[in-house]
TrEMBL record:
Residues 4-142 form the HTH marR-type domain. Pfam families: MarR. This is MarR family winged helix-turn-helix transcriptional regulator. InterPro entries: HTH_MarR-typ, MarR/SlyA-like, WH-like_DNA-bd_sf, WH_DNA-bd_sf.
Amino acid sequence: MDFDDPRLTAIGLLAEAHTGLMARLQPALSAARLSEVDFETVIRLARSPGQRLRMSDLAAQTELSTSGVTRVVDRLEREGLVARAACSSDRRASYAVLTDAGRTRLESVLPQHLKDIEEWFTGLLAEGELEVFLTTLRKIRDVVRPCATAGAHDTYETEDA
């Protein structure tokens, strides 16, 4: 058995890099009173059409269970960062919608978060490496998490509809 197999090295380095990056990024999130999952939820909403996602799509994107995403949205809703909106075309579905307060909280953390990303991640890459890295990550993500972009390109119904 070859314990120096480059596949083991690749997955080990990826895990170590992820763990290290999350530790470096956490202080800014904590200062904004956001956990990793809270931040992931509000940034996904902010980057989605209409700053909203169906709860089922949000669950698929975050890989949380339906009850898990419900608990996160409940907590964010109590803080005023997210609101729920009914889906007029499907009574069983509802949307999680980023509120103005959620947008404000996100805007308060983003400058430091982006600075940290630049310092500990993207700024370490030479010119051209980031684009190759992003392409590679998308290739892997699309196979291992095909639901990661669920609802991201859908049009949403307006409240007038």
